[in-house]
Amino acid sequence: MSSLLGGAIGERMPLDAYYADFEQHFWQSADLGFWKLERQQTFQEPGYDSWEAFARGDWGESLRLLEAGRAEMDGYHRKVDRHGFAARRVRVVEEPLSHYLQWELHALRIRSQCGGPTRVVRADQVSQFESDGPLPEIYTLGSRVMYQAVYDDQGILESARKFVDSELILHCQKFIQGLYEVGEPVEDWFDDHVAPLPPPCRTSV
Q1: CA of 50: how far to CAs of 90, 113, 146, in Å?
Q2: pLDDT tens-digit readout, 72-111
Q3: Could you tell me which residues come within 8 angstroms of residue 97 by beta carbon, excluding any fewer than 6 positions away?
């Protein structure tokens, strides 16, 4: 387990309870905003139409569906703005990119263009923090709640852990913010590292 969490394990929540809890707390994040750290390089997102198209090898349809969701994404982040905060993300990347990450960076670019700013940091920029394991997939909601996403062996979201220790939450929020401040805006990174890539093959996601 990463030392970032200081040995804390949080409260394990099944997905239904987690989704309801997240929805309740997300819109109350105005004091510090929403900060998310993504470290793992491959996930599966069954039920998300663009990912489903990507996973079956239909790259063109996958990108079309991402674009089709732009208006909804824009409306979502306008609502976030009306609630008085921003939803910021840090995406750790390893190169060569996994096929999943190639797809996800297209999605994150659109999200950022719609008001959900994302910064990219290289794996070597976080290696000093990973002597005891990869950084966790965590996100802070204001100063009162933090979640850690828990994935199964196939990279599918299985459950979440909830943390309410304000000192730990503030520590993790500052850590993510520090990475964000040294990261590169996803739009700029995308132009140099993702846009030139050919479509990923369908044999691996």
Answers
A1: 21, 18, 27
A2: 999 999 999 999 999 999 999 999 999 999 999 999 999 9
A3: 105, 193, 194, 197
